[in-house]
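FIELD: query
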Amino acid sequence: MILYPAIDILGGRAVRLTKGDFEERKVYEQDPLAAAAEWVRQGAKHLHVVDLDGAKEGRPRNLENLSRIAGELSVPVQYGGGLRSLDAVHDALQAGAQHAILGTAAFKDPDLLDEALERWPERIIVSVDVRGGLVATAGWTQSTTSTAEEAISALAQRGAQHLVYTDVDRDGMLEGPDVDRLTAVLENVGEGRLVYSGGIGALRDLEALASLEHPALLGVIVGKALYEKRFTVAEALAALDAARGRL
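FIELD: result
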């Protein structure tokens, strides 16, 4: 499994939210590049960057920060937040993102998703963010009528092979993942791959995910636990490796 340390950018700073609430934020670094560089220094091989300003406004607002992170650190970056047009996706990829993450646009503009998948089939990730059992959009401020299972099954049928599933109700709570729910979600991925996000607070949470040994589970995004020093990147990587070694 791949570990993706998270850098969430709001107002030009690296922050973490609680349950996706923009009013419940904590600033961890004044410069997002500093946060990203620290995770790479600790051994991270991939990074997950979220433009929270862009998610709220509906257009990318932190491409300059993305460019700095991707340009100065020699690791792949997946980037999302406000990518709701083909031009926005193109700009994110040009700024250095290896993968562009579509969230709101994937559910509100099916034609955009289809064209993005056709144009960049290996570089598009679809984000399925779930709050209260239903898919949330617009920076987690609006809900749809689709469950995660329904949404992921439909996306798989349309050709989306790369997914991020976020349990918003657990995001920032450090209480661990709902493994049973994740297992149910994974059964709908088809031949695609999924990265999990939400609630990781201890090394045992990473071990629980790795022990699922599900072929569709590609990796895990970790944010607050790293910022709060619950464990280091090196310890997280070792826990994932150890769990795999025991299988």
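FIELD: remark
The chain has eleven helices and twelve strands.
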